Amino acid sequence: MSDHADATDGPAVRPLPAFEPPYYVVVFSSVRTPGDRGYGEAADRMDELVKEVPGYLGHESARNPGGLGITVSYFRDSAAIEQWRSVGEHRAVQKQGRAEWYERYTVHVAKVERSQEFERE
Asked: How far apart are CA 21 and CA 113, in angstroms?
């Protein structure tokens, strides 16, 4: 996924709102290989495709100048995560990512039982 909040909102200027628990997060931390080689286009396509999954709530991403990227995706339930994992085009892009775009990555999946937010007036 690209380095911004949910693609419907454009580049993030604020975080997504706190969702009503319980829900799930998928935290994808990565270090990219040099160059784009189609990564941006594939990320944009995944941004579009994941929105078709019932139970997808949104995502936020950031990448620091040193190359560490973190994307947090929000899903209503584990069934939505499994559906996203099973999308053929997503699986193909994952395979390409391991072959070309990532030096390393980790994926963490967690159930959120508490969520809150704050915004200065």
From this structure: 5
Residue boundaries of the structural domains of the chain: 16-112
Q: What is the pTM of this model?
A: 0.85
Give 49: exposed, middle or buried? Use CB within 10 Å, 0-12, 13-18, 19+: middle
Q: Write down the pLDDT at residue 38.
A: 92
Please state, in angstroms and rounded to a whole number, the distance separating the CA atoms of residues 50 and 115: 23
CATH 3.30.70.100 for domain 16-112, yes or no, is yes
- pLDDT tens column, 79-102: 999 999 999 999 999 999 999 999
Q: Mind giving me the DSSP string for 46-106?
A: HHHHHTTSTTEEEEEEEE-TTSEEEEEEEESSHHHHHHHHH-HHHHHHHHHIIIIIEEEEE
CB atoms within 10 A of CB 59: 24
Q: Are 85 and 43 in contact (CB under 8 A)?
A: no
Question: Given pLDDT bands bounded at 50, 70 and 90, which one contains residue 110?
Answer: very high
Check if the beta carbon of residue 93 is closer than 8 Å to that of residue 102.
no
